[in-house]
Prior knowledge:
By secondary structure, the chain is of the alpha/beta class. The chain has a single domain, classed as Dihydrofolate Reductase, subunit A. Helices cover about 20% and strands about 35% of the residues. The chain contains 4 helices and 11 strands; from the N terminus they run βββαβαββαβαββββ. It has helices spanning about 25-35, 45-50, 80-85, 100-105, and strands spanning about 1-10, 15, 20, 40-45, 60-65, 75, 95, 110-115, 125, 140-145, 155-160. The protein has an 8-stranded mixed β-sheet with strand order 6-5-4-7-1-8-11-10, with helices on both faces. Strands 3-2-9 form a 3-stranded antiparallel β-sheet, with no helix packed on it. A hairpin with a 2-residue loop joins β2 (about 15) and β3 (about 20).
Amino acid sequence: MISIIVAIAQDRAIGYKGDLIYHLSSDLKRFKALTTGHTVLMGRKTFESLPKGALPNRRNIVLTRQQGLTLPGTEVYSSIEEALKHCSPDEKIYVMGGAQIYSQALDMAQELEITLVHDTPSRADAYFPDFESSGQWRLVSREDHEPDEKNPYPYSFLTYTR
Length: 162
């Protein structure tokens, strides 16, 4: 089962200069709750942006074109297809970015776990691919939240399936 997990702005922006645009406490807690005990798959730049390296209590898979690269606490592969050959059919895999990896994984995914931040950032250089226009995705769960002291923007947790 391949699930994409992402926080996006209303214009599908996800990042700027290699960093996330939004840092919502509730989004980070949800990310941890959903992915712990499962596999996370990410690109090298996303891995390098993690403050403490490999995420604990998860199998960490990193994709890179750099031959021979080794990263502590991870398995490194050159493509999504190669990585998936090393995963079992019943393994839940959360694709966690970045933009190029999301684009490659979108057609393979069965589920999208989206935190939609009800805001449009003034600057962004990375975007989540358009998935809504395909008509393939069905919204199965929506949880709306107002801003609070730890979450400065209104946001919604959305789950889509094919």
